[in-house]
Amino acid sequence: MSLPSPDKLWVYHEAVDLRKSYLGLCKILEQDLKREAQSGEGFVFINRNKRLAKVLWWDRTGWCLFLKKLSSSRFRVSGNQEVLSLELSKVRFFFDGM
Predict the structure, then answer these.
(1) Strand partners, 56
(2) Which candidate, 54, 46, 55, places its Cα nearest to that of 74?
(3) Residue 13 exposure: Cα atoms within 13 Å on the Cβ side
(4) How many Å apart are CA 17 and CA 89, to the nearest integer?
(5) DSSP string, 36-90
(6) Torsion 66-69-70-74 (CA) sign
(7) What are the two backbone dihedrals, phi and then psi, of residue 49, each rounded to the nearest 5 degrees?
(8) I need a labelling partner for 50 at 20 to 30 A (CA). Which of 19, 59, 93, 97 fits?
(9) How far is CA 10 from CA 14, 37, 55, in A?
């Protein structure tokens, strides 16, 4: 199965309650980060224990929401910026918890 991919991927550094749907995540983007949710960019949200991540993006036809749960490692988020750009070459490593 081939999925569309976002133009650019950003990681939100604060812990997020991932029970939120795409509407709740869009609210974080628009109100807290002052970013356009339907920009085509992907946004990664991580929960408090850094084992769950949700990726949200608009692919010009509708919302895409991807959930990843790590079984033994944790997502690594560093820095003190509100959002971090994730290089597309490192996306696989990020989602593997490396």
Answers:
(1) 43, 65
(2) 46
(3) 10
(4) 27
(5) -TTSS-EEEEE-TTSSEEEEEEE-SSSEEEEEEE-SSS-----SSSSEEEE-GGG
(6) positive
(7) -90, 5
(8) 59
(9) 12, 12, 9
Question: What are the Cα distances from residue 84, in Å, to 12, 14, 15, 42, 93?
Answer: 7, 11, 14, 11, 15
Tokens 């550094």 -> residue: 13
**Single-letter residue type at 5:** S
Residue 10 DSSP class:
E
Sheet containing strand 83-86, strands side by side? 63-69, 52-58, 42-46, 9-15, 83-86
pLDDT in tens, 44-77: 899 999 899 998 988 888 898 988 898 888 877 7
Q: Which two tokens stand for residue 98?
A: 């490396």
- The structure's pTM equals 0.79
